[in-house]
Design goal:
Blueprint: E1 10-14, H1 40-49, E2 53-57, H2 66-76, H3 81-85, E3 87-88, E4 98-100, H4 114-119
Length: about 130
């Protein structure tokens, strides 16, 4: 029996606050007003060129029109259709090698305290 061909590793990137700057208040899954985070597109392109699968995930993903709105936002900000075609837009959080998220906690065996959670601010709300 031959060894199966391994799938490329996946990087899952949160959309709002990581790719889309998410400065404006939430107005629904289909309304995306703010510009990209500097360096986001370069990073995505770099990951794809390195052979990773790149999944773009958001709370928008499971809402009607959310995935289409994210794809259109990429087009509006100059990402080619060919590059968008290489991205995954799952409706549920997929298994991944790593998750890049502005609201994540890097778990190293200890849970954050209630005080830490209450004081938490995303990088763009400091």
């Amino acid at each position: 029996m031959s060894n199966p061909i391994p799938f490329p590793k996946r990087i899952c990137i949160d959309f709002d606050g990581v790719i889309h700057s998410h400065i404006s208040p939430w107005k629904g899954p289909e309304i995306i007003e703010d510009p990209p985070v500097p360096g986001a597109f370069f990073a995505i392109e770099t990951y794809l060129k390195a052979g990773f699968r790149v999944a773009i995930f958001s709370c928008r993903s499971s809402k009607d029109g959310g995935v289409r709105a994210m794809m259109n936002w990429f087009y509006q900000h100059g990402i080619s259709a060919a590059m968008v075609d290489h991205l995954e837009f799952p409706c549920h959080k997929p298994a991944a090698e790593i998750y890049i998220d502005d609201r994540g906690f890097h778990f190293e065996g200890s849970f954050p305290s209630v005080e830490w959670i209450q004081a938490f601010k995303t990088w763009n709300r400091q």
